[in-house]
Amino acid sequence: MASSAYDILGQKLFDGTTKRIYSMIDQPGLICIYRKDNYRSAGKTFSIPGSRRSSVDSSIRFNQQQLQSLHSNPNLFIEIPGKGALTTSITTCVYEILRETSIPTFYVAPHPQPDMFIARKCTMIPILWIVRRLANETYMKRNPGIANGHRFVPPIVEIYHKRHPVVYRRLTISNIDENLESSRESLIDDSDSDSDECLSSIWSYEQLLNAHFDIEDLKITQTEIEYMYETCCTIFDILEHIWMVKKSCQLIDLKIEFGITTTMPKEIVVASTFDTETWHILRPMERTTTSGVDLIQENLIWINSTLRDILDLNNKISLTTKLDPRRRSFAQKQISTLDDADTDEEEHPVNCIIPENDRIDTQKDTSFNQYKTSYAPSTTSRCIVVCSSSADIEHGQKIKITLNELYNIQCDIRLCSIYKSTKSLLKFLSNYVYEHCRPTIFVTLGNVNNGLAMCLSSNSPYPVIHCSLMNADQPNNLFDINSYLTSDTAMFSVVFTLPSAIQNVIQILAMNDWRLWTKQRGKRLKNYLDLLVADQQLATISSTSITQQANKANTGILTNK
């Protein structure tokens, strides 16, 4: 690590085999996690019948010498160049995705050092949640009769109790005494604590409920268990959707852990680190001849570049600086040999059929660049609100503010009338139809009989939603069901409130926008959790009032006696 990385670092809290944790100066509620390049395989395999490749980390094979060394010394870890920086980048990308859903996590921000990130200090809950979509060999051994690759609909959730919860609590204690660390405890870490030796048998829901965990003065009751369960299902749903929609990959299973923050207000947050051992991903690809460490490194690079591509981030991690020259491939050696060749030779002109004067230099020709930027297709979503009168502009502004501020959707407000000028409406429509690649939705306001929705849906390929605002004070704005049921006008959707129109717009655009989809999924989780907490508060108030009434009744009886 560079010396600049220590500018904000405080005391070293934990030094394990795969990570090192520091406190932060003047930030008692934050920690800095440094990921090492060590790796130890769990020794398990995973295979799915078919032409697709197995999970990105399940097909890892080591040579005979590596296997013998691992079996002779189970605490031996293999060093993979660049693993720490890659796992940190993967973890950062996943938490940036979850930030779109507003799910509470311990992740705060990346660190200038590529193999470190800043997180909230928390005490880990000694429970590992595993969400499975497909059955693997480990699951088949515990459940005979289940076919390999069986699809669970909905995905199943397994609960594991960790045998070494003290280590996870020690990670967050600011006044930890490093001299008291035993050699065994220093070897237990997030990466190897998921193996069989650190996990007991699968717990049932009732076992977890009757464990009565009390961590950081927060009791794990049924409400907290339901919160973690639904959060696990939501995270798996989001990541599965993104992998499938963006990269045509299947998320097989996912491991999730939670922690409780040490500072007020105390809350349960997602506190997992993501690498090849955290999830299994089935992706279409050709067979590869790489194995062992090279395959692990290849999978880490692929996951990292894929996630950064989904987030539209530039890959700033330079693996060439961390790669050992002995591990470079033959192609990389050839490239380095070519780079070291003599540069004094003059470059010979390349023969070309096209005359040199007829070529177009896209770098120097500014007119071509202007054309390219002006007519480049945009794929960002947008909504066009069409008002039939000036009285509807106020409602259109409400839709625009909601879509812009909450969902970052471009929204334009236009004023048109099919009765005053049909030609102007068609000309207005032509300004939007030519962008074929851009997801667009039209929302019309006013009476359904104004003809705007019918004209737009008949002359454009985009979906049209008509919002007919019901108002008892103005009978003329009431919805005419007879006119809507005719065959000519029943080509668009009709809603009666602004929130309904906004919800329909978001759900349609979310089909092509994973950010909108994740926000909607996070909103569903929030609605469920709010209802769960409100129901618990109501039950607590009811039980308290019943107890008080019973005490009053008993007091009265005793007084009478």
Précis, in short:
This protein is an alpha+beta fold.
What does this structure look like?
The chain folds into two domains: 9-56 and 76-311, 2-Layer Sandwich (D-amino Acid Aminotransferase, Chain A, domain 1), CATH 3.30.470; 382-515, Rossmann fold (3-Layer(aba) Sandwich). The chain has 15 helices and 20 strands. The model is unreliable at 43-62, 165-197, 315-339, 341-360, 370-375 and 554-561 (pLDDT under 50). Strands 8, 9, 10, 13, 14 and 15 form a six-stranded antiparallel β-sheet that branches. With 561 residues, it is α+β, with helices and mostly antiparallel strands. The longest helix is centred in the last third of the chain and has 47 residues, at 514-560. α6 runs antiparallel to α15 (514-560). One of its GO terms (cellular component) is cytosol. Residues 79-164, 217-278 form the SAICAR synthetase/ADE2 N-terminal domain. Pfam families: AIRC, SAICAR_synt. Residues 384-519 form the PurE domain. Keywords: ATP-binding, Ligase, Nucleotide-binding, Purine biosynthesis.
Write the layout of secondary structure elements.
Layout: E1 9-15, E2 19-24, E3 27-35, E4 38-39, H1 64-72, E5 78-79, H2 83-99, E6 107-110, E7 116-120, E8 122-134, H3 137-142, E9 151-162, H4 165-170, E10 199-203, H5 205-211, E11 214-215, E12 218-219, H6 222-247, E13 250-261, E14 268-270, E15 279-282, H7 292-310, H8 330-339, H9 366-374, E16 382-387, H10 393-407, E17 410-415, H11 422-433, E18 440-445, H12 452-459, E19 464-467, H13 481-484, E20 493-495, H14 498-509, H15 514-560
Parallel strand pairs: 16-17, 16-18, 18-19, 19-20
Antiparallel strand pairs: 1-2, 2-3, 3-7, 4-5, 6-7, 8-9, 8-13, 9-10, 11-12, 13-14, 13-15
Domain SAICAR synthetase/ADE2 N-terminal: 79-164, 217-278
Domain PurE: 384-519
Protein name: Phosphoribosylaminoimidazole carboxylase
